[in-house]
Amino acid sequence: MTSVSESKWLLLIHQIPPKPDYFRVKIWRRLQQIGALPIKHSVYVIPKNEQTYEDMLWIFREIITGGGEASMSEASFLEGLSDAQIIDMFNTARDADYQRISEEVRALAEKCSVKQLHKLKKQFQDIVSIDFFKAAGRESAQAAVVEAESLLKFSTHSSKISASLQTVKGRIWITRKGIYADRISSAWLIRRFIDSEAKFKFVSAKSYAPKSDELRFDMADAEFTHEDDRCTFEILRERFCPEQPALIPIAEVIHDIDLKDEKFLHPETAGVAAVFSGIAMLQSDDEVRLEHGTVILDSLYEYFSKHH
Length: 308
Prior knowledge:
Blueprint lengths: L8 E7 L5 H14 L2 E4 L2 E5 L2 H16 L3 E7 L7 H29 L2 H16 L7 H22 L6 H4 L3 E5 L4 H14 L4 E5 L10 E3 L15 H9 L6 H13 L9 H14 L3 H22 L1
Parallel strand pairs: 5-6, 5-7
Antiparallel strand pairs: 1-3, 1-4, 2-3
């Protein structure tokens, strides 16, 4: 923990035009994200280090570029607020964040929501990254996350899964012709995580009657297709691969491409969508589309395995 006498601070003093409204909100959110705290109207403070200097400098430039005014300086507090008081302000803010995480994690454990737990874990790590003085609430929040993971893991293993791997292996998987993001990624997941020898058939959805050894996905009356606001890839991941964390961000990217509801807003989504569109433009054969898509999805899986 940084001692009071050694604390050094960065100050950002800014004035933002009243219009457009979103710009003021954007700057406020950016300051929250990097962990800066207001000490008075339009004056924000943050401990000085290389990372916070770079973060604050980017916000300073955003304000200037957006037509506002800003000054940024290194500061020491001589009168009024003391270093100890400011440190207490930071710890109070982080303790409130940790308390919220603890409450939400415990509520999710009762509902057995694996997806939301992973999102809250990411939020917890984001809070840790701006917990400059190791607030007391960090330990209890981390304990809540660990406990919830244990409960969810036990619940997942003990519950009855409607479709087990044994019942779907060796089957022929049917989906609509002209495969795109959701169907390409679903077929990739099936072949990589469910049945490495899986065979696919691409058909006209309206006229096709499935045979007894066939399973349908992402089509009307399919055994595996959209449910509520989740795409087919999300359903397959939840049922067959709940303990593959790298598949979660891939599922969220595919969700936003397929449903176009901007629910997750991963920075990779636009690029992945562009690649899938390029594959569809260049390749009319569905087997070839799947082959090209497999390369992309294998690469994404490797990336998120290291960065999630």
